[in-house]
């Protein structure tokens, strides 16, 4: 990034930081005006909730911005301050992770609003402390169409307090109960909210130590060659044959392998016979990482101003990350012919040695993002102009084993002793290098509002014009051979959403609304692609919302998917389902410039039901069917079907052992799936109603407020049931059933059922949370017929727990503890391990439990302080 860009980013962040830092401890008077809702009659009069009793479907309203961007829209789910507190979440991002199932099941990510206004994305809200939030509202899907977004997306409205200042410090440390696996995080969060204006700045640093295979006692792959740091000698013909009859005579046994004595650069037959058939052994687990060491520093700043019905918001975020991993040692097998000066043998032999230090791979990534949004009324319509720019730079430096040919030639010539110190100039690791620099920029304008008045209500429309450019420049070096790529993709798009009410409140069958949407996009490299969709929303009674939709999309591959530079991973461990062996291969990732445009058709039907008017119980269900042609996907695991479909992606040696896998994205002829997603959400209070007066702990919000002193709970149960999932690589090849052993990823087959449960209980500043996930059995088949190489994955249950306590509430007399929260989290509480068996009932080396989940059970202790 150039000097001008760096100066701009720094200046923006300082403009946000300085007012917060100098004014954070100031006090506020009452707000000059009440925070307005959809209509003045329903606006709250203070930041503290005046009535926290459960709301019914009849009286829930949406708290939008003062001009009422979304008037009259009832949320499907709403969390007030005490519901939010029961989660014990530190930030809005943490909270959305926990309620995300109810928020968005489309896979496209939710649309985020702040006080009824659209934002530039998750960076705007992720770091907001939960103490600054009055409500979280999950809105019906049809709301997205009003905003010019795809109607299948969910919309979340985050309602902020009007006046609130807060400085938050957070520190966490984590360790695995199996040993090692330590990580640390520190964060400073500055926030100021005042009369609709917002300034925030967050600094975060994270570090994770590398975890080695020796830390988890991983069983190493069996060696086909007896490599060792000191060296072993074996017959030149085949491993296991007799090295030399003279050596066998001295040892009194047939010698198939002879270890080199320590410090002996000119071994005699007698010295070699002393430890015959007891090879040297180097534990390579000390030189292989299960998970890389990581360091990440990020800063995120937000700036928002409001002038009546006009608003401006800016976001700037920067992140720098580095990783460091090791992939074992470089082994070399040197041929030593009879008659050379260093050979004491009467036959040709081979010397197997590890040479040099561990092969390392280091990554460095930079991510810079700037976004802005301007909204203002234009006549009776609302105009939104947004723009963003993202710069991504990624560099990977890797090492590959050196080229043995020059060293081998010198050994044959008798100029280099294969038993002694090898010359460093001939044993320098070859370089694998990858660098990419991408810049993505977009400008978008949306005009939304009422078109005309129909008998059932107003018809609304949103028209969006978008300009976007993606540029990626990359270069890579594979085994010291340089390559380069560059790609520019420009896009101009025009989209429209129309919502027409067909029946209104006075209809005997309830409200009925039709959604229509379409888009046309022109891309310089691909041409013109079109999207269109339709949806029908029906509300027969206030407690029930039903929706059906059809969405047809043509999806062009991204610049990164097409032209990312290649990254090569050495000694990458995979399971070869064709041979039933765990092997270490050269594993290649990157972009594929030959990917076609995909076409996806999705139709769905679902609903939301509130069975009780006096309880916050919400039932949701959705059936969806997807049909995709030219699906873009990473290369699945190598079984018979995949190898037949993509034979050029796998390289084997003369013995049929897999040596290279090119896993760059591929296109499948089609991929079809049907699934049913259902969810239950229930939150509320326990016991008889009670009221207390209190101030938000550690904050400088307006005054004290009344809150419900009863214990609060949140409960959600989510079930995803995949009814059908089939895929065909090419039309000439058979269809693969992914639920019956088709390959999707090395981590396991496709489970038919996934159940997630979340339960939280909080009282007087103390809370406990439990999160559980259960996945049903799955398998990956080696071919069409049953085989010992088929791999079966058992059902698995994972449970996470988190305990938190507000120390200031527990010990009210200690001022130093005011605003402090202690939390203890346990990930994988039951230390659950995936059980994997092949057709013989054995666990393949690739599927050892700690290779699937290196960390195991981990405990995190955190301390958070609000100043």
Q: Please count the helical segments.
A: 12
How much helical structure, as a percent, in the residues? 10-25%
Counting helices, strands and paired strands, the structural category is mainly beta
Low-confidence stretches: 1-69, 696-700, 702-706
Rg value: 31 Å
Number of strands: 43
**Termini Cα gap:** 36 Å
Mean pLDDT: 86
Strand portion, in percent? over 45%
Q: Summarize the biggest pleated sheet.
A: 22 strands, antiparallel, barrel
Q: Which outline best applies?
A: elongated
Walk me through what this model shows:
There is one protein chain. The protein is mainly β and 867 residues long. The protein is 10% helix and 49% strand. It has 12 helices and 43 strands. Strand 34 (712-728) and strand 35 (736-737) form a beta hairpin. The longest helix is centred in the first third of the chain and has 21 residues, at 3-23. The radius of gyration is 31 Å and the shape is elongated. The relative contact order is 0.11. Residues 1-69, 696-700 and 702-706 have low confidence and may be disordered.
């Amino acid at each position: 990034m150039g000097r001008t860009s760096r100066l701009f980013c720094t200046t923006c962040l300082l403009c946000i930081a300085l007012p917060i830092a100098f004014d954070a401890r100031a006090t506020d008077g009452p707000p000059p005006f009440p925070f307005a809702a959809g209509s003045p009659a329903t606006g709250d009069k203070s930041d503290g909730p005046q009535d926290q009793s459960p709301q019914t479907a009849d009286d829930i309203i949406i708290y939008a911005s003062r001009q009422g961007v979304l008037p009259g829209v009832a949320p499907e789910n709403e969390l007030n301050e005490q519901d939010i507190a029961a989660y014990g979440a530190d930030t809005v991002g943490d909270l959305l992770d926990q309620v995300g199932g109810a928020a968005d099941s489309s896979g496209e990510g939710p649309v985020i609003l702040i006080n009824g206004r659209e934002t530039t994305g998750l960076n705007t809200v992720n770091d907001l402390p939960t103490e600054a939030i009055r409500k979280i509202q999950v809105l019906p899907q049809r709301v997205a169409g009003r905003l010019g977004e795809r109607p299948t997306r969910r919309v979340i409205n985050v309602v902020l307090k009007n006046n609130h200042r807060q400085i938050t410090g957070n520190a966490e440390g984590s360790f695995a109960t199996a040993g090692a696996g330590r990580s640390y995080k520190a964060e400073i969060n500055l926030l100021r909210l005042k009369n609709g204006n917002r300034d925030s700045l967050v600094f975060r640093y994270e570090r994770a130590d590398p975890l080695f295979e020796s830390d988890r006692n991983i069983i190493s792959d069996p060696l086909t060659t007896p490599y060792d740091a000191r060296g072993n000698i074996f017959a030149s013909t085949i491993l296991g044959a007799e090295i030399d009859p003279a050596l066998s005579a001295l040892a009194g046994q047939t010698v198939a392998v002879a270890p080199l004595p320590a410090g002996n650069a000119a071994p005699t037959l007698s010295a070699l016979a002393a430890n015959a058939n007891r090879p040297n052994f180097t534990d390579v687990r000390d030189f292989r990482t299960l998970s890389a060491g990581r360091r990440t520093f990020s800063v995120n700043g937000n700036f928002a101003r409001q002038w009546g019905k006009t608003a401006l918001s800016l976001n700037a975020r920067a992140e720098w990350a580095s990783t460091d991993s090791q992939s074992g040692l470089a082994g070399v097998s040197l041929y030593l012919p009879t008659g050379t000066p260093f050979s004491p043998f009467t036959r040709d032999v081979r010397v197997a040695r590890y040479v040099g230090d561990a092969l390392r791979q280091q990554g460095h990534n930079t991510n810079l993002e700037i976004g802005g949004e301007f909204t203002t009324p234009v006549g009776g319509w609302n105009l939104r102009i947004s723009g963003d720019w993202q710069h991504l730079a990624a560099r990977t430096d890797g090492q590959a084993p050196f080229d043995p040919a020059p060293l081998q030639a010198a050994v044959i010539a008798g100029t280099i002793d294969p038993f002694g110190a090898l010359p460093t100039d001939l044993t320098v690791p070859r370089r694998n290098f990858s660098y990419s620099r991408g810049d993505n920029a977009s400008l978008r304008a949306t005009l939304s509002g009422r078109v005309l008045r129909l008998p059932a209500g107003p018809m609304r429309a949103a028209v969006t014009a978008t300009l976007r450019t993606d540029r990626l420049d990359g270069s890579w070096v594979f085994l010291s051979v340089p390559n380069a790529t560059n790609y520019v993709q420009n896009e101009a798009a025009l989209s429209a959403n129309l919502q027409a009410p067909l029946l209104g409140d006075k209809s005997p069958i309830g409200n009925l609304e039709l959604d229509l949407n379409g888009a046309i996009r022109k891309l310089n490299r691909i041409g013109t692609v079109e999207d269109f969709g339709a949806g029908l929303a029906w509300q027969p009674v206030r407690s029930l919302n039903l929706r059906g939709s059809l969405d047809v999309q043509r999806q062009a591959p991204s610049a990164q998917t097409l032209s990312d530079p290649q990254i090569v991973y050495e000694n990458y461990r995979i399971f070869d389902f064709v041979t039933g062996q765990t092997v270490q291969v050269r594993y290649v990732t990157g972009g594929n410039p030959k990917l076609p445009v995909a076409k996806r058709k999705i139709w769905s039907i679902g609903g939301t039901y509130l069975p009780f008017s006096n309880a916050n119980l919400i039932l949701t269900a959705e059936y969806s069917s997807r049909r995709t042609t030219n699906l873009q996907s990473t290369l699945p695991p190598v079984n018979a079907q995949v190898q037949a479909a993509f034979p050029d992606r796998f390289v084997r040696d003369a013995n049929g052992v897999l040596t290279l896998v090119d896993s760059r994205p591929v296109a499948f002829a089609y991929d079809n799936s049907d699934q049913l997603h259902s969810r239950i959400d229930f939150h509320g209070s326990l016991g008889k109603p009670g009221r207390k007066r209190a101030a938000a702990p550690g904050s400088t919000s307006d005054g004290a407020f009344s809150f419900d002193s009863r214990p609060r709970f949140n409960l959600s149960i989510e079930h995803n049931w995949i009814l059908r999932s089939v895929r065909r690589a090419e039309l000439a090849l058979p269809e693969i059933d992914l639920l019956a052993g088709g390959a999707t990823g090395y981590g396991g087959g496709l489970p038919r059922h996934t159940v997630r449960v979340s339960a939280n209980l909080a009282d007087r500043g103390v809370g406990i949370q439990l999160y559980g996930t259960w996945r049903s059995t799955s398998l990956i088949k080696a071919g069409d017929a049953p085989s010992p190489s088929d791999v079966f994955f058992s059902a698995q249950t994972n449970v996470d727990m988190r305990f938190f306590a507000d120390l200031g509430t527990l010990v009210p007399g200690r001022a130093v503890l005011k605003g402090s929260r202690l939390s203890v989290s346990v990930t994988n509480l039951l230390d659950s391990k995936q059980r994997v068996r092949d057709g013989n009932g054995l666990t393949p080396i690739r599927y050892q439990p700690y290779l699937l989940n290196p960390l195991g059970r981990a405990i995190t202790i955190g301390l958070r302080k609000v100043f």
